[in-house]
């Protein structure tokens, strides 16, 4: 039985690392918004709805620090604008998000029919 414990610990560590990056109320919705393409701050805020500008700014910085998104300054526009897009690492979340939505629909159906 001991031989499986290091494997279990490794899997738990990997899951914790992943959850640390995408945890919280806003990060997954932000990533989902950006799966539809490069967007400006206001576009992301409109997609999500009830997120404050301060919170969106904080979450975008965290996602950028974890290399899931890139921030591109559009200096040639007036006023100066910023665009956000998913990195290849951020795009790699797409299949996970699809599975999460499938599971969420299943979970909702199960709870409704109880």
From TrEMBL:
Transmembrane segments: none
UniProt name for this protein: HxlR family transcriptional regulator
Organism field: Spirosoma radiotolerans
PROSITE patterns tied to this protein: HTH_HXLR
InterPro entries: HTH_HxlR, WH-like_DNA-bd_sf, WH_DNA-bd_sf
PANTHER family: TRANSCRIPTIONAL REGULATOR, MARR FAMILY (PTHR33204)
Entry's Gene Ontology molecular function annotations: DNA binding
Entry keyword set: DNA-binding, Transcription, Transcription regulation
Residues in HTH hxlR-type domain copies: 8-112
């Amino acid at each position: 039985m001991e031989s499986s414990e290091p494997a279990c610990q490794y899997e738990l560590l990997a899951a914790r690392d992943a959850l640390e990056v995408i945890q919280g109320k806003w990060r997954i919705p932000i990533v989902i918004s950006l799966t539809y393409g490069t967007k400006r701050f206001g576009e992301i805020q409109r997609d999500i709805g009830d997120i404050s500008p301060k919170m969106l700014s904080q979450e975008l910085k965290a996602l950028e620090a974890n290399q899931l998104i890139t921030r591109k300054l559009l200096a040639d526009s007036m006023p100066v604008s910023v665009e956000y897009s998913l990195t290849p690492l951020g795009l790699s979340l797409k299949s996970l998000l699809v599975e999460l939505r499938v599971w969420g629909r299943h979970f909702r159906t199960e709870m409704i029919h109880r």
